[in-house]
Design goal:
By secondary structure, this protein is an alpha/beta fold. The protein has one domain: NAD(P)-binding Rossmann-like Domain (Rossmann fold, 3-Layer(aba) Sandwich). It has helices at about 15-25, 40-50, 70-75, 90-95, 100-125, 150-165, 200-215, 225-235, 235-240; strands spanning about 5-10, 30-35, 55-60, 80-85, 130-135, 175-180, 180-185, 200, 220. The strands form two sheets. It has a seven-stranded parallel β-sheet, sandwiched between helices.
């Protein structure tokens, strides 16, 4: 049986590349999209040689939302699975003072990803099948002083994915929200991350593949994050605003 193509947006990230390797190993054709697709040439060659699957590279700018419809038309085929791994953390201190920088973080984590996934969802619905994966963040579950610009954008993206999932609940389009927690990637390099709470990119990829196969709706890559966020979101606001977490 022929496997459907998998589109990965933001394919230069460590998590995205781990996902690409997982789906290539399962025999899926891959469509890898990024602002600099030339940076993916080595990965493309490796995946094609190692797994004998076709891999196409595509230029994609998540902030250029007007180009998104045309981008979909350039794909060799409408994917069966679309995974959005686009994200930008930025620096909270800078974002507090530089509104242009803050806007870029917000648009990169919410507006752009939501726009492209909405278009793909409509195409999937017209075809009658498709799966969408949005990689969001536990940072979006409660606003914290230390990263509220990034967190607010992820909160919007998480709510968007929830609404999209609800919209297609009785149709053959499924939406999965992924909340990884800390992940050891280039983006978090240099940060002092607790090992028990920090996943490897390969863990994220494995969790996504497994969750889609089981029709899951929302997943934490490491289950301990469910407990942590249940505690954090239950703290009364009068107390929470006095904490520096």
């Amino acid at each position: 049986m022929t496997k459907g193509p998998v589109l990965i947006l933001g394919a230069t990230s460590d998590m995205a590349q781990a996902v690409a390797r997982s789906y290539a190993a399962l025999g899926h054709p891959l469509q890898l999209a990024a602002r600099r697709p030339e940076a993916l040439e080595k990965l493309k060659a490796d995946l094609e040689l190692r797994h004998s699957v076709p891999v196409s590279l595509h230029a994609f700018d998540v902030l250029d939302t007007g180009s998104h419809p045309a981008f979909i038309e350039t794909l060799p085929a409408l994917p069966e699975i679309a995974i959005c791994a686009v994200g930008m953390m930025g620096e909270q201190v800078e974002n507090e003072q530089d509104m242009a920088a803050a806007a870029q973080v917000m648009r990169s984590n919410y507006e752009g990803p939501a726009t492209i996934l909405a278009l793909l969802a409509n195409r999937f619905d017209a075809r009658g099948s498709g799966q969408i994966v949005g990689i969001s963040s536990v940072a979006g579950l409660r606003g914290r002083a230390t990263n509220y610009v990034y967190g607010s954008a992820k909160a919007g993206f998480t709510a968007f994915l929830s609404g999209l999932r609800n919209r297609f609940a009785k149709r053959n389009v499924h939406v999965l929200t992924v909340l990884p927690g800390f992940v050891a990637t280039r983006m978090t390099e240099g940060m002092d991350l607790p090992p028990r709470l920090t996943a490897e990119p390969e863990e994220v990829a494995e969790a996504i593949v497994k969750a889609l196969s089981k029709g899951r709706n929302v997943i934490y890559v490491r289950k301990i994050w469910w407990l942590i966020m249940a505690i954090i979101t239950s703290i009364p606001e009068a107390i929470f605003k006095k904490l520096r977490i």
